[in-house]
Amino acid sequence: WQLAAACESLEEKQNVCEHVFQGGPEEYGLLEAIKFLMLAKALELHHSMVTDQEVPVFCWLLFARDTSENPQCLLANHLSQIGFSGGVEMFLLGYALNHTIQAFRLYMIDTEEFVTHYPDDHKHEWPCVCIVTEDDRHYNVPVRKNLQHQHRDGQTTTSP
């Protein structure tokens, strides 16, 4: 993360990400770290909720399910299964990372739910990450690739 954040150009960042996100141990380690961040945020929010402090609305839904009535159940039944379900956990992920996740839900085209924000209560304050999904189970992050164009005069130019 620190290496990618320190990169000065988009090309350098892309190279770092392509090295890490190949399904190897580094990628899986990052996924597990994110799960722990989500668990830490769930513990904090659950404590606030049971002590009658103000919490985001999604917390009431998150902890109302039989399978996630407390952080321990949430970990066992949902966080350990990340990648197999969406919805409420996306709100938790946004809170854990202090980022708004803007999802383009392709199967919801021409509806109000085509573009969804997780969470929607900080979308003007937090940095935004865009994702695309066809089914709310499998998400893709659009990545800009540089394209090389060959001109008639033999010169090659690169454009985003």
Automatic annotation (TrEMBL):
Record Pfam families: Peptidase_C101 (PF16218)
GO MF assignments: cysteine-type deubiquitinase activity
Sorted UniProt keywords: Cytoplasm
Cytoplasm is among the record's keywords: yes
Active-site residues, record numbering mapped to chain: H138
Main location: cytoplasm
Site entry: Linear diubiquitin binding: E113
Localization in the cell: Cytoplasm
Record bears the keyword Cytoplasm: yes
Gene Ontology, cellular component aspect: cytoplasm
Location of the region described as Linear diubiquitin binding in the Swiss-Prot/TrEMBL record: 135-137
One GO term of the biological process aspect: protein linear deubiquitination
Family according to the record: Belongs to the peptidase C65 family. Otulin subfamily.
PANTHER family for this protein: FIBROUS SHEATH CABYR-BINDING PROTEIN-LIKE-RELATED, OTU DEUBIQUITINASE WITH LINEAR LINKAGE-SPECIFICITY A-RELATED
The protein's name: OTU domain-containing protein
Organism classification: Eukaryota, Metazoa, Chordata, Craniata, Vertebrata
